[in-house]
Amino acid sequence: MNNFKNLRGTVDLLPDQLIKWQNVEKIIIQQLFRSSVKEIRTPILEMTELFMRGIGEGTDVVSKEMYTFLDRGERSCTLRPEGTASVARALIQHGISTRPSQKLWYMGPMFRYERPQAGRQRQFHQLGVEFVGYESVSSDIEIITLAWDILQKLGIKELNLEINTLGDHIDRSNFQKAFLNWLEVNKNSLDLDSQRRIDKNPLRILDTKNVQTKKILKGAPRLFDFLSEKSLERYLIIKEKLKILKIPFIENFNLVRGLDYYTHTAFEITSGTLGSQATVCGGGRYDSLMSQMGGAETPAIGFAIGLERLIILCGSELEETRETDIYIVNKGRHAEILAMELSRKLRNFDLIAELDLSGASFSKQFKKANKLKSKSIVVIGDDEAVKNEFVIRLFNNDNSENKEETISIEDNINLEKWIKSNLILDKNL
Ligand code: ATP
Ligand code: MG
Fold first, then answer.
1. The domain 15-168+228-317: what is its CATH number?
2. How confident is the model at residue 197, as a pLDDT?
3. Burial letters for 133-170: b for 16+ Cβ neighbours within 10 Å, e otherwise?
4. Which of 67, 172, 188, 320 has a CB 3.0–4.6 Å from the CB of 79, allowing a cystine?
């Protein structure tokens, strides 16, 4: 008996579920390609310090969500909880962080030790996009638009884009002083979690989900009122441009994002359909990350989409897959090898060709072809094999009589003709 089970918070994705995942990934990758965003792949495992420095020790992610362990060489390693720090590390390490204008994406598993619930896992997947070396307001707009358009391409409706600005470091520290004074006075009215954050990461208190704390926070100083003229202007232009592009948004002054490295623009895309784990995409500007990690000052902006939540939002039309083009029924010693030869040839025509490997009776093989809803069928018995030929016909077709043809195994011209007039070739296969 097998008692093994997957670890809590991890999930097996089975073939039927993966049809949707693959369709979603394909649409995303196409859209990224069209936008000249290039892929980068970094290791899943990194030095723990990378995340402590990159994400910040006061954050929830670093202080309580990381999968950290010592390897056999006593080095502290961590399974990546997010992708931005690794991308920054890779660019700095390879001396390319200051190359102008790099648009990058990555997709893959992330690990956070959290309480598993709908839309929240311990191993989950993110698509991340980072525009490195981009400072302009237009780059903020372009990245928000890219996230928005990916979600539109996937047919997801009823999304809310929330934006905010965190200002620059000076704005933030001016605000933080005032906020800390206010927190000192109001400390006892806050929930315990928020109280704990006062010393560690006071800005995060703004992001609380505690209803009572939320109410009290309404009386707190607002970061918005501490923005310099320059920061404010930047933010106003962003709003203006989003309006021109007809991308609907709402302003959320409490949107602070969980990671320490953000400045200026912060945004999230949420959906009411997701329940309490509503955020499908989170992003923002992180102009100081590169220098914080030992690289040169390099402005950058990015976002990450949670793929599990995204899949929940995508409609069932993405669960459809391409059906088998040709099912090859074969029986007999000579027929089997001929069928194998033919299956390889058919796949070179960009067709899905499935070879029956069962050696079962013809009728059983026909049933299998039927079940698969194969568009056409090839039949090779030893009678055909001796003559070095096969019968090919459209399946489930009223005119099947007319469409049946006997073709010699060497007759590529006629085979191609038959395929081209009866099946659709798919170059993407
Ligand atoms: P949340 O507030 O939901 O914890 P977050 O601010 O920690 O999100 P980010 O670090 O911004 O999330 O990650 C970007 C996206 O990745 C989130 O918007 C969400 O869609 C997804 N995500 C984050 N953590 C998880 C998780 N544990 N399980 C599934 N998806 C997740
Ligand atoms: Mg989180």
1. 3.30.930.10
2. 87
3. bbeebebbbbbbbbbbebbeebebeebbbbbbbbbbee
4. 67
pLDDT reported for residue 314: 96
Question: Which three-class secondary structure state does DSSP give residue 420?
Answer: helix
Closest ligand to C-alpha of residue 122 is 1
Contact call for residues 25 and 106 (beta carbons, < 8 A)? no
3-state secondary structure at position 405: strand
308 CA distance to ligand 1 middle (Å): 10
For a substitution probing ligand 1, which of 80, 125, 126 has the most ligand atoms within 8 Å of its CB?
Answer: 126
pLDDT at position 307:
98
**Residue segments in the chain with a per-residue pLDDT below the cut of 50:** none
Domain ranges of the chain: 15-168+228-317, 326-422
Q: Whose CA is nearest to atom 26 of ligand 1?
A: 120
CATH fourth-level superfamily of 326-422: Anticodon-binding domain (3.40.50.800)
C-alpha pair distances (Å), 298 with each of 11, 139, 271, 285, 293: 37, 14, 32, 11, 11
Q: What is the pLDDT of residue 1?
A: 62
65 CB less than 6 Å from ligand 1? no
